[in-house]
Structures are given as C-alpha cells and as structure tokens.
Amino acid sequence: xxxxxxxxxxxxxxxxxxxAAPPFVRAQGVTEIxxxxxxxxxxxxxxxxxxxxxxxxxxxxxxxxxPIYAGTYQETMVKALTAHKGGTPPATSVLxxxxxxxxxxxxxxxxxxxxxxxxxDKKWLASFFKGFMLNSQTGGKTWGVPFQRSxxxxxxxxxxxxxxxxxxxxxxxxxxxxxxxxxxxxxxxxQWGIQIPSSGFPYWLFQGLSTQADAILANDKxxxxxxxxxxxxxxxxxxxxxxxxxxxxxxxxxxxGTTPKDFFEKKCAMMWTTTGNLTNVRNNxxxx
Length: 288
Known about the structure:
4-stranded mixed β-sheet, 3-stranded mixed β-sheet, 2 domains, alpha/beta, D-Maltodextrin-Binding Protein, domain 2, 12 helices, 288 residues, disordered N terminus, 12 strands
C-alpha cells in the first residue's frame, strides 16, 4: 500500500472521517502516527485495519501507524476531542461526517485541500462520488473524504416471505408496499414485519425516509435545518405510523445494536440497517 493511499483514505476519510491537526512522534528515525478508529458494525474490522497499517508500513518503513480502537463513533469523537484539548490529538481519525462542524469549531481538524498538491492528488480527490462529498465539504474546503461509507439497506427473510405468501425475491418497492408486506409478516408481538432502529444513528436511518420524500434535513453551511418541510414531516409520520397505526413495528426505541439479532432470531422479518452489517448477516442468518 502506497503512502499517499493510506494517508488519504484511512487517515483523511471516514464514514465521514476527518484529518486531525497532526502531531507526530519521531523516535530513532521512525515517525509514528496515531489513527483513531471506531468499531460499530459486525465483521473483522480490526483485522482489516491492522492489515492496512501493516501494508502501509511495509511500503513506508520510516513511518509507523498506530491504530487505536476507541469504541463507538460517539466514544471515538469524545476521545479525539479530549486528546486534542490535552495537546496529544491523533494524527488521523475516522469520525462521523455529522461531527465536521464541531471539529471545525474546536479547531481540531485541518482541510485536506492543503495536502492536495500534485495532479495525481487532485485526480484522487475528484474521484469520489459527489453525493458522498456533500457532507464532507463546507466553506469551499474539503474536511474529510468518504471511508467505509455505509448505506442503509433493507434486509428481508425469504423464508418468512414465503410463509406469508409473498414473493421471496421481491422486496417492497415503496412506502405503501413496505406497510402491506409488513402487515402480512407481523405475528402479534412475537414477529414484527419490520424494524427500523431509532437508537445509535437515528438521523441516518431517518434520512432514508426523508430523502425518499425529496427532503433535505440541513444546509451545507450547518446553520439551518429543514425539519418543518412537508417531506420531513411526512417521513416522520410514516415512521411513527409503522408502530402506532399499522402495528407492524415495535413501539418505543428500537435498538441499533440488537436489531440484527432480532432479525437472526426471526423476531422481525425485515430490518433496516447498514451495509456494514452484511458480513454479520451472512455469517449469522440461518436462512436465505
């Protein structure tokens, strides 16, 4: 792995990861950089990052990367800011894109643009999907680049679809179909038709609904929200109605961390969660 590749993907990116103002430790000719990394999904994440770091060090023997697994995204953010205020910030961090404005206000990160010098660098930065860059840029500067950009997707149990008389190879195509399918799949409170987690990353899962309603939640300056827009209201009402009106979804807070387990145990027939859980689903779902 080339030096530029690691420094600009693992280091500068994120699920909106951001490049921290970097202190470096130098000892006996070796530069050590710390890399804060959260673990929030199933799968051998730490092994992968260790392998990336080892590959980078092999190609760049004068640099040692120290991955530090700092907990969840929220815990990693707290630890990164604490280290920053204590004078020992990580050189690089993988953090959520929604933390960008806080990190800018705290003077904890620097724009990646300052490190983009060569034509190859510029080509690399321009290679990302524009949609993924929208919440990594503000004020004409780029503060993070996409890294492990997960997408919220619908997983469904094909066996339970068959039992309910549904086509196991056809997922609901719209809101109305999702409700109709969920009604056929719900069995009292022992098996819910669908679960959409509302802890952990509720704003992110909610965007899956609000975007379908053609609504944007905030502007790119980070100083205005659009929660009063009709599309946002419609999306929230739909989510609430899944449990309150249609009775196909658990009431109250649905936990992010336990929703995959509920799916594996057939306590819900459909679930919304991240593509980052795909390995977890493949390894633990004993059904197609």
